[in-house]
Amino acid sequence: MISAQSFSGKAVALFGLGGSGIATAQALVAGGADVQAWDDNPESVAKAEAAGIPVVDLRTIDWSRLSSFVLSPGVPLTHPKPHWTVDLARGAGVEIIGDIEIFVRERKRLAPDARLVAITGTNGKSTTTALIAHILQSAGRDTQMGGNIGRAVLTLDPPEAGRHYVVECSSYQIDLAPSLNPTVGILLNVTPDHLDRHGTIQHYADIKARLVAGSETAVIGVDDSFCVEIADRLERAGPKVVRISGRLPLKSGYFAEESELFRGATPENRALFSLNGIGSLRGRHNAQNALAAVSTCLELGLSETEIQNGLNTFPGLVHRMEQVARRGKVLFVNDSKATNAEAAAPALSSFPRIRWIAGGLPKAGGIEALRPFFPRITKAYLIGEAAPAFAATLGETVPYEISGTLSSAVNHAARDAEADGEAVVLLSPACASFDQFKNFELRGEAFRQAVQALAGIEPV
Fold it and tell me: Is 126 assigned a ligand-binding role in the annotation?
């Protein structure tokens, strides 16, 4: 844990006592801050009290004596309207920050030269974060990974010289980290998301841009208009800008052609890296993630050999195009994280013959946007509440059955796939899980268990 001694002797209020909120409160208490914490959920308050965190209803405190207010990133800062604690903090002129900001201040205090890689983007940031951390670790670098993935950032080991931090940052976290200054900042892409919390797509893009604006080197994906504008603006204003593209050749920067990764303006025009045969990095979207990772690791001084070795051994993330097992020539892939049509598209674009398990609690728009991928689907196995609507969309274009449950879908898809030769049984639901599972993680685990229960299963 990082002891937040930058706040020693200071009065700090904190709202939001989920997992990262409790970790943040503990870091502040350990650093000697006078902490007053609260949450609207009585169960969260009870857990904090049990963990030794001072709790008090923040409506009753004297806000004028506070030096800082720490807000959980899950609590509205601006939209649809500020949380009541935000109004109280602003009324008292108290700074509003989050756990990433506390980490940044501790890094400045303890080891300002410790390398910090911060990653954001609408899509792909978790895979990119995990891939960079894996490459660094496999090359023998002292590496800590956390933030919006895995461990809360203040539960990581304290900053020290030679240590590398790889931190995923959501837009909510960036909005609460005014001093964020990565060694390498990565902005993968900007597409409409979380507009209920940011109001407009432009405001959302502006928040994402803050991460790279404070970086020594900014790695920016330029496959969307927002990021093109951000890269151009930053290049005129400050940090070194490295552009990446999964779609177009770049004269300067890094780009992908199929599974080969190139650096622009190299006379020999040779691929620097290859993703051929790396199942965890299939698809154009993962080519962009890999471009972000390799360009960052080159900036950090790793050799091409170290980076390629890291790519080759990357296991991927659970529930994100995760290769679970094989039976003969049939591959079973867990993409439970795909909770809407847009999220399911990358997996559907990555395989030529698919036994597709889809359904759950439907999202607006259904699966109509996935129609270009229907020719890749040998048969669909539909589950959950969305099954009738998905069946209507598939119509006579794609054979389907309404399997009802995930276990039935796995069994039927596995049986049918045996006759296909080489095929993929893919769970990529394009739906939320809440009709049958508490979350997408439990849905993915249920898929894994159903696959493992099949006869003749072998590890990938």
Answer: yes
31 assigned to a ligand binding site: no
Q: Is 407 annotated as a binding residue?
A: no
Say if residue 127 carries a ligand binding annotation.
Answer: yes
- Residue 122 is assigned to a ligand binding site: yes
What is 280-338 written as a DSSP string? GG-SHHHHHHHHHHHHHHHHTT--HHHHHHHHHT----TTSSEEEEEETTEEEEE-TT-
The reply, when asked if residue 349 is annotated as ligand binding, is no
pTM > 0.85: yes or no: yes
* 310 in a known ligand binding site: no
| Whether 167 contacts 100, CB under 8 Å | yes
Q: Domain 322-452's class? A: alpha beta
Lowest mean pLDDT among 220-234, 237-251, 266-280, 426-440: 266-280
- Strand 95-97: give its sheet, edge to edge: 34-38, 11-15, 68-71, 95-97
Closest CA to 35 of 17, 65, 52, 13: 13
The residues, ordered by sequence, that sit 6+ positions from 283 with a Cβ below 8 Å of its Cβ are 321, 346, 347, 349, 350
CATH 3.40.1190.10 location in the chain:
101-312
Tell me which architecture the domain covering 101-312 has in CATH.
3-Layer(aba) Sandwich (3.40)
Mean pLDDT of 415-437: 91
